[in-house]
TrEMBL record:
<feature type="transmembrane region" description="Helical">
    <location>
        <begin position="117"/>
        <end position="142"/>
    </location>
</feature>
<keyword id="KW-0472">Membrane</keyword>
<dbReference type="InterPro" id="IPR007016">
    <property type="entry name" value="O-antigen_ligase-rel_domated"/>
</dbReference>
<feature type="transmembrane region" description="Helical">
    <location>
        <begin position="187"/>
        <end position="202"/>
    </location>
</feature>
<feature type="transmembrane region" description="Helical">
    <location>
        <begin position="37"/>
        <end position="56"/>
    </location>
</feature>
<feature type="domain" description="O-antigen ligase-related">
    <location>
        <begin position="191"/>
        <end position="336"/>
    </location>
</feature>
<feature type="transmembrane region" description="Helical">
    <location>
        <begin position="208"/>
        <end position="224"/>
    </location>
</feature>
<feature type="transmembrane region" description="Helical">
    <location>
        <begin position="359"/>
        <end position="380"/>
    </location>
</feature>
<feature type="transmembrane region" description="Helical">
    <location>
        <begin position="68"/>
        <end position="87"/>
    </location>
</feature>
<dbReference type="InterPro" id="IPR051533">
    <property type="entry name" value="WaaL-like"/>
</dbReference>
<dbReference type="Pfam" id="PF04932">
    <property type="entry name" value="Wzy_C"/>
</dbReference>
<feature type="transmembrane region" description="Helical">
    <location>
        <begin position="93"/>
        <end position="110"/>
    </location>
</feature>
<feature type="transmembrane region" description="Helical">
    <location>
        <begin position="236"/>
        <end position="260"/>
    </location>
</feature>
<feature type="transmembrane region" description="Helical">
    <location>
        <begin position="162"/>
        <end position="180"/>
    </location>
</feature>
<keyword id="KW-1133">Transmembrane helix</keyword>
<feature type="transmembrane region" description="Helical">
    <location>
        <begin position="330"/>
        <end position="352"/>
    </location>
</feature>
<dbReference type="GO" id="GO:0016020">
    <property type="term" value="C:membrane"/>
</dbReference>
Amino acid sequence: MFPQIAIFTAAVFLLLLYSGGWELPLVGENADEAGSAILRVAYLPAYAAGFGLIALDPRNSFRAAVRQPFLFALIGIVCLSTFWSIAPDVTTRRAFAVTCTTLGGVALAARFRWRELAEVFAATFAVLIVASYVVCIAVPRIGVMTELFPGAWRGLWREKNGLGGMMAFGFCIISAAALLNPKRARLWWGFAVLAIGLVLMSTSKTSLVSLMLGVAALGFVLIARRGPAAGTAATWTAVTGFGLLIAFVVLASDVFFAILGKDATLTGRTKIWSAALVEIQERPWLGFGYHAIWGDKSGWGPFAWISKNAGFQAQHAHNSWLEQWLGMGLFGMAAWGLSYIQTMTLALIAVFRDRGALLAFPFLVVYSLVALTESIAVAYNDFRWVLFVALAVKLAFPDRELER
């Protein structure tokens, strides 16, 4: 019994470190060079926990990893981009970080069955939820925004969208834990309600849309698993609904942006995309090196030109697809695209064959939406990337393979 508890605790510890919920209380809103150094060192225990979980079961870890060939081709391109990077030292450091982050997700997928994995994820979110309520209520100078959006809750993150977006994912995962573990369903449903509360208190409309999309995806899985007829009806309803949504966005974009509280540039994102596309033309095949652009302070590199054309300095491309193209060229973007297609295909198949879809499908639907406006794919030291990798590998390495 003790080894299982220790392994569960190590997995939750790994995820809590990657959540970044400790960064704001530790180094404040604007980390200087000393703070950045602290952050880099602070992730080392997460790497160690991932390697430790792999070492406990290396055979299954290898068997799980090889079932996602495009994912590891992508990581290979990340590492190779060091050779053509405009900042080789930066790319080398961050390539090592994203490799360790990715292996952490593989370790989780290879170690736990679906219901166990759901509870590992849910326990992590439960800690983050409790801590967020505590810091918002008891220490509002940290947990509540005072300048840009006075009164909006940000919890353990630097701004309200960080809290809202994280809790939208949290609701999907905790709800799946409740459905996959009926004995503790009341506990997990309680935390799911608390997650909704944090989304609302963040006042983030984008996060609220993500939450609603997650609820719809979870409902789709529940209905589709009731039988062939229900599955067919749910599929056609989902396809029709998606088509109507796209038509609404295209034909009534002003109304759509007004509902989200955004302008037509998506808070400047389209300006970043246009500027990034201009720079991509310089190195379309290989890119500038994994995450080499955004730390460039030379004043003459791609970052300077993107900032000039966009009208402000961005921290990333605000689009997961453009981010891969910028960093690793068409080869990197193709590898990411193939990995994503494989994962989503497996998730759709699992909807009709595997209860694990209750955990994977809603998360991946919300992830797909967020990836259009944020650079969350192939992201080093990133909670959402760890979860994506764990679910992608788990879909390719289901419980029956783990038991074999």
